[in-house]
Amino acid sequence: MGRHYLKAAILWILLTAIGEFLALRIPLFPTAAAEEARIIDSSFILLMILGIPVFTFVLAVLIYTLSTFRSREEAPEDGPPVHGRPAVALLWITITAGLAIYVIFNPGLKGLAELRANQRADLVVRVEGSRWFWKVTYPEYGITAREIVLPVHRRVRFEVTSVDVVHSFWVPAFRVKIDAVPGIVTRVFVTPTQTGTFQEDYHFRLQCAELCGLGHSMMTAPVTVLEQGEFDAWVGKAKP
Amino acid sequence: MAFAPILRGLVWGALGFLLGGGGAVLVRLLLGLPAFQPEPLITIGYFPGLLGWLLGVGAWDVWAREWFGLPVRREAVYDWRRYFRFTTDHKVIGVQYLVTFVVLFLLAGFFAMLMRIELMAPGPTIMSAGLYNHIMSMHGIIMIAVAVAAIIGGLGNFAVPLLIGAEDMAFPRINALSYWLIPPVAVLLVSTFFAGGFDSGWTAYPPLSEVNAPGQVLFNLAVITFGFSSILGALNFLATILRLRAPGMTWRRLPIFVWSIFAASFISLTATQFLAAGLLMILLDREAGMTFFNAARGGAPLLYQHIFWFYSHPAVYIMILPAFGLALEILPHFSRKPLYAYPWLVAGFFGIVFLSFIVWAHHLFTSGMPDYLHGPFMATTELISIPTGLVFLSALGTIWMGRLRLKTPMLFALGFLFNFLIGGVTGIFNADVPTDLHLQDTYFVVGHFHFTIMGGMIFALFAGIYYWFPKITGRMYNETLGKLHFWWMFLTFNTTFIPMFWLGLFGMNRRIFDYPPALGSVNRFISISAFLLGSSFVVFVSNMVLSWARGPQAAANPWQARTLEWQVPSPPPVHNFPAPPQVVGHPYDYGFTNSVHALVGVSGGSGEQGVDTDG
Ligand SMILES: [Cu+2]
Ligand SMILES: [Cu+2]
Known about the structure:
The structure holds 2 protein chains of 2 kinds. Helices cover 42% and strands 22% of the residues of chain A. Chain A is α+β, with helices and mostly antiparallel strands. Chain A folds into 2 domains: 2-68 and 87-116; 123-238, Sandwich (Immunoglobulin-like). The complex binds copper (II) ion (2 copies). One copper (II) ion is lined by residues 129, 132, 167, 208, 212, 216, 219 of chain A.
């Protein structure tokens, strides 16, 4: 009896080790080009690290049970008459509750606090969705464009809205997403940490992520992150 | 003639539609409005049309004649023709539901195949973006309907009265009414192909759903009707389980599948109205110029999303609770062990019911809802993993040290456990706000909910279909084909949906007709895998059809199971039990010497059960 528990536990530890090793070795994310992407990716990794032992626990019990407790008879004898002791259920509830509450705080609330810690912006960019294109304006410079161009290491506040149906502002390289809702202005902060262009990396794109009809999948705009000097040059050229 | 009731329903339905639509035209003419506005005409014609259909198909004969004191005509039909009638036998209605929803499942699966052909390669492949959006929306809503009604309406109707030792459901005629509300739903959805389609998905977010083709109106009417059917069904199950349990069937002896239907029905009864209200508001915006969701005229598009998810998140548990119940019903019989931690599990079900009502806004983390709401909704959502964890405790505790017989139903129940585990663990990533900011509306979410609904609910449905096939049909399915179906479906399901998690992380959003070329090879792999998954149902359908037609005669209790339905012949006689069974013990007490669940065929009940509920 105790032998079964021991063997299943060894299997669990083994599977967990393999799982954690793979999770930390396999590239899980595309280019992370913003401070926000770093926070979100590390939240993801933490959830992976915590989720794998849960997954492998069930897997280990399944594998061990299926390989050990099989019966090939049409009408087998009955198994042990066990209803389960309340102590086991209480222990199980304590562990699952502990895990659930832990992930609410970390990475949940902790990640949110980090993402929202800084409400100050160096640059404001207005983004307006309409079927099926994005209009980007830079109120400071009086620029209107069909693309997003940003200076690296400057905190940007995007002010997002829509003129028709609900769209969603999503730049995979930045990891952040916010809906463009008619009638209200939604906000999201991004601090690019890496230069890049859509031509080199398709994750540098503004993609509509909320179903908006016929042209939904094609509702994209290129995103470019430049060094400050290059950005100033772009502003000079784009200014009306 | 076999199809006479259906034909009469169609004729009366058409008359009702013309009457309602004609009345609408007349009123508009009198008011000096343009007479032929298709959308209000369809909407106003639909409700008398629906009434005409229901009366014609059987409500008039079975119900109204008696009420109005007219001579009642009742012919007993016991052959295959009863499946095409307004029949009140819960076993017939169960089969009606089951076959209807398996057919709808295959239809929606066919739409999924079309989508995967389109997504084989970047750029247009076989259809236009508009048609893709329509097909995708159809796939979504039909699968949602299957997930809501296939287990509850099909297996619930068939098995619940048997499991609790009752003669029928509490309200057999309302039961028939719930079923006969379904054909109009299917007809409306299919008719969208002739009304310009609808491209707003199954979620129908305004303003998109207020500016698209008239097909949207048909969608809204279909879903409102479907909701009405679920509410009536839920009411019936609650009444049945509360009032018709056999003598001795105490709450602690109730089979777990019955508990799960009870819990799910509670949600159906109390939450479905919200969805209907939201869809009705869209209709009023479209047709009566009201402005619930029109921002330019003072409305709030976000309001709809709250109303919608206030139903549609609990609805996830309408789909999955019966799946939990079904898998956990099967595990003890095929492990020959008692259901582990039964009272804790039941408490877990009700923990889920309660929490399911206070998590809805986790669908709105990126919607522009105020930031301070993110924390509370993240917290309630994560807490659901505690009662859900009890399902795993119970399942693992039951199979551990058991005497496992890996028959097809058992394989599907174990497959459910594995798939739902992946669905559950990936759900944490969607519930935690920081990660959801990236994952929301991507293929990661598509992967997640297919693991819970298809990997979970559909696998449990198949477990239940194989488990009760001998009881329903009186014949045995082919075990080799059953196992082939399981392994084929299980492997290709996983190879189809696991890569979607990767796609979501790497920038593929959902509901798209086209995607960045760099994602082409993974999409091709998924498509090929999806075609193999689709083909596994050929094995299923041929097994079902051939076995039903000429499978070997099934014994009364081929699984040597303890619960009540196996103590009567296969298929069960019309009134189920010769006399109300006397329940004397737990349903899953394998391994206890001299333990019995119920005495069947011995007269012992109070006679209360003998009241003819059929009339
Ligand atoms: Cu859009
Ligand atoms: Cu939800």
